[in-house]
Structure formats: C-alpha cells, structure tokens
Amino acid sequence: MVTENYRYVRGRIDEACRRAGRDPREVTLIAVSKTKPVSMIEELLPEGVLDFGENKPQELKEKYEVLPKNLRFHMIGHLQRNKVKYVISRACMIHSVDSLRLAETIQEEAAKHQLIMPVLVEVNIAQEESKFGLSAAETPDFVRELSRFPNLCVKGLMTIAPFVENPEDNRVHFRNLYNLFIDIKARNIDNVDMCILSMGMTNDYEVAVEEGATHVRVGTGIFGERNYQ
User: Fold this and answer.
1) Which residues contact 47 (CB under 8 A, 6 or more apart)?
2) 27-53, pLDDT tens digit by residue?
3) What superfamily does domain 2-223 belong to in CATH?
C-alpha cells in the first residue's frame, strides 16, 4: 500500500509539473516518515526512494542508525537548540531555521564535525500565530545574517502553509514565498545558494508544485494517518 501511495503522489507531482511547464526532475518528493516504523520506510527502498522527512531529532537519529547510509533524512520539524547534536551529522538538511540562536548552535556543532550544514530558512508566510518562522519582511536580512556563518549554507526557504479544505486557498501563500525566494536569489549574497523552495504537504502539494516548489513534504498521503499515542 505504501508503495502504491508513493507512486500515486509522484504521478500527481509529475502531472502538476506538466501543467506548469516544469521538468518533473526539478521536484523532490520527501516521504515524511515521522512516527512511522522503519519497516514502512523499508517498503519504499526498492522504489529507489532516498528522501525521508523527520520531525523529532531522536527519532531521526534512531532511524539513521539502522537504515542504509545512502538515505537522505531531512529535519523538517521545529528544532530545539539542545537537540541539534542529534541531527548535525545525520540529516542532509535542516528545513526549519528560524532564529539566530539556533543558527549559532548549528554553526558550533557543524564546526565540531568539520562539515557545512545545508539549511533552509522557515518563513511564516501566512503570518499564523500558531506557527514558527520569520515574517516575509524579516527574511532577507535574516538570510544575510546567516551568510556570515562559515559552517552553514543557506539553500533556500521553507514554509508550512495553513491547513485548508481547498488547496487553492494556499496558492497566494506559495506564490508569495516564491516571489520572496526570487527576490533573495537576485541579491547574490555570498554563501547563500538559493536553489530550494520547500513547500506543500499532503493536502496542497500539487498547487505548491505549480507555484514553484522544488521539495514537497508528503506524509499522510504516502504512509496513511499518524498514530500520536
């Protein structure tokens, strides 16, 4: 079932790319495996799936230790500074950088491991009080601040759009984030490689792809409903 779901979602992404005149190879599907057992991840490996998303650092660490080392684990959840050590050498990218203090901790841990950590800046593009992330207005200056950290590389932007019944309601937010992404890219800031736009989840990923997403994060659409017990 997981494999069939993955193929269905991938097919919908490819269709959205065609509608938007994009190459489907431009869009990475991250299978969000948070709260799901290792066995469900393993079901997808024969399909050549490499990109998985995790919300909790400890869970990412545990799965990393037992699964093939060619998998790419994306840290997509809110990251506390005291948990950075669990993800720094295991995650391929941190999608949720939203404060200088968090960036400083990532810098320290990355320097210890002698690596450069790819990060995305989390933008609260819809300005929801319940969500983490910077406002659109704050983001360009924040990106410039992050560019000073030698062991970080800003790769782009991420957002979690509102949960809506009609995916079309989020089109304006995805379009606004894309425009912000293009604006920052045009500034040619040193140590900033604006190439990733992480937006779109199970209920709205097709609209996100039509509006320029390079990475979509789909969990329920692939693995089914989550059990948070």
Assistant:
1) 3, 6, 7
2) 999 999 999 999 999 999 999 999 999
3) Alanine racemase (3.20.20.10)
